[in-house]
Amino acid sequence: YYMTADRARIAAFFHRTFPGGLMKRGKLVSARLWKAVLLQVRSQLMVSLAVTLFLMIALAAFRVRYGLLIGLGIGVADALPVLGAGLFLIPWSIAAFVAGDAGTGVLAACLYVGTVVIRQVLEPRIVGHNLGLYPLATMAAMYAGYRLLGFLGLLAGPVLLNVIVVVLEADERT
């Protein structure tokens, strides 16, 4: 609340305190950062949409009862941080094998492998394309982010890489 109510005073303080070039670079970086965050969210939703469509089509093709609804539910869970398709498909596969339904167990395991492959193939390309980064750099940033911050690092890694690129570009312009 205080940040919003005193926004003009805070902005005036920063303008008085910091040189104009730094403020200009800060505005550029801030604008590009927000754009990168929105594009990152968009990218993750596109990948989750691909996973959802894959699950719905596969479950419908194998005539799983309520397959479209199950595929949609698992796909929505896949879009949420921390949750994923594996949270549902792996226990489903294990439970099917324990119950003696090997066909369903194999199907659920194959669906999980399919979602992992789709995510591994599409995510670096879509995120890289939307953020304007090379897929290999995006994949490396996602891996480094994951190792440093866990699951949220998958999202933060490419955004941080984009911020670094923006800061370096802003430094070259001046």
Please outline the helices and strands.
Elements (H helix, E strand, L loop, with lengths): L1 H4 L1 H11 L2 H42 L5 H13 L6 H14 L2 H30 L3 H15 L1 H23 L1
Name the descriptors.
mainly alpha
Q: Order of helices and strands, N to C?
A: HHHHHHHH
Beta-strand proportion: under 5%
Structural class given helices, strands, pairing? mainly alpha
Largest sheet: none
Give the number of DSSP strands: 0
Radius of gyration: 22 Å
Mean pLDDT: 84
Helix count equals 8
**First and last CA, distance:** 35 Å
Overall shape: elongated
Low-confidence stretches: none
Helix content: over 70%
Model description:
- With 174 residues, the protein is mainly alpha-helical.
- The protein has helices at residues 2-5, 7-17, 20-61, 67-79, 86-99, 102-131, 135-149, 151-173.
- It is built from 8 helices and no strands.
- The radius of gyration is 22 Å and the shape is elongated.
- The chain starts with a helix and ends with a helix.
- The mean pLDDT is 84.
Short overview:
The chain has 174 residues and is an all-alpha fold.
